[in-house]
Prior knowledge:
Catalytic activity: ATP + protein L-histidine = ADP + protein N-phospho-L-histidine
Protein name: histidine kinase
EC number: 2.7.13.3
CATH superfamily: Histidine kinase-like ATPase, C-terminal domain
CATH architecture: 2-Layer Sandwich
Number of domains: 1
CATH class: Alpha Beta
Distance between the termini: 46 Å
Strand order of the largest sheet: 1-2-4-3
GO molecular function, one term: phosphorelay sensor kinase activity
InterPro entries: HATPase_C_sf, HATPase_dom, His_kinase_dom, Sig_transdc_His_kin-like_C
Structural class: alpha+beta
CATH topology: Heat Shock Protein 90
Order of helices and strands: EEHHHEE
Amino acid sequence: MKYSKDTIDIQITSCLSGQYTQIKVRDNGIGIPLAAQRIVFDKFERVITRNEDAKKKVSGFGLGLNYVMNVAREHGGYVSVESVEGKYSEFTVSLPLPVENEE
Length: 103
């Protein structure tokens, strides 16, 4: 939401995918350049966009997505991003389904 356009549209969905439950959060923001998608989860990383004015107006330390990634990993899951500059970003948190005990 920090990097969204004037009119913010957030979609949150969930689904099952194999042995994982997935939570997807999609916005209509300014998007993330393809090269930056590889580093967006790195600690202290703030994405450089073509719209530098947007970055200057946004406060933060580049920790939020790193925290999300670490929490997902601690639970045996992972986080991914899909983004198109100028259109949207979609983050998917995938967490393993609980294993039922066989008795």
